[in-house]
Amino acid sequence: MKSAGVTSIATAVTSVAVPDTGAQTGPAVLGPGDVPVALTVNGKRVDLKIEPRVTLLDALRTRADLTGNKRVCDRGTCGACTMIVDGRTVYACSTLAIEAQGKRIRTVEGLSSGNALHPVQQAFCDVDALMCGFC
């Protein structure tokens, strides 16, 4: 009796089906290392290699040298990191860069036309303002 029970348990344990990884559904796993991310910023393509957890603000400030938008509160409340993504304002400190792929991103640098500053940019220069003023 004891040997029959052990044999049936051993058979059950060794015959467990392994799931077919090719049949899994859902998004592909990315990371934890750098992955390629292509962004359209101020009408230009920006190709980056970043970790999936990098915010849009960090990606553009530290990897693309677009430093007009600032990190101030890091909680999405002050507006210093505000960017326009597909016509809507977003807090870039709480938006993942990988989620902005395929969307049009406009930063404070994108307001100007050539060498002429946008009136908002000029006003901030005139009064020596502390933040970007984009919000």
Task: Based on the model shown, name its key terms.
single chain; elongated; five-stranded mixed sheet; 5 strands; 21% helix; alpha+beta; 3 helices; 135 residues
Draw up the topology in text:
Elements: H1 2-14, E1 35-41, E2 44-50, H2 56-63, E3 82-85, E4 88-91, E5 104-106, H3 119-126
Parallel strand pairs: 1-5
Antiparallel strand pairs: 1-2, 3-4, 3-5
Please give a quick description of this structure.
This protein has 135 residues and is α+β, with helices and mostly antiparallel strands. 21% of the residues lie in helices and 19% in strands.
**Main beta-sheet annotation:** 5 strands, mixed
How many E-type strands? 5
Span between termini: 77 Å
What is the arithmetic mean of pLDDT?
84
Helix content: 10-25%
Question: What is the quaternary state of this protein?
Answer: single chain
Q: What share of the residues does DSSP label as strand, in percent?
A: 15-25%
Q: What structural class do you assign from the helix and strand content?
A: alpha+beta
Q: In order across it, which strands form the biggest sheet?
A: 2-1-5-3-4
Residue windows where pLDDT falls under 50 for at least 5 positions? none
Overall form:
elongated
Topology as a string of helices (H) and strands (E): HEEHEEEH
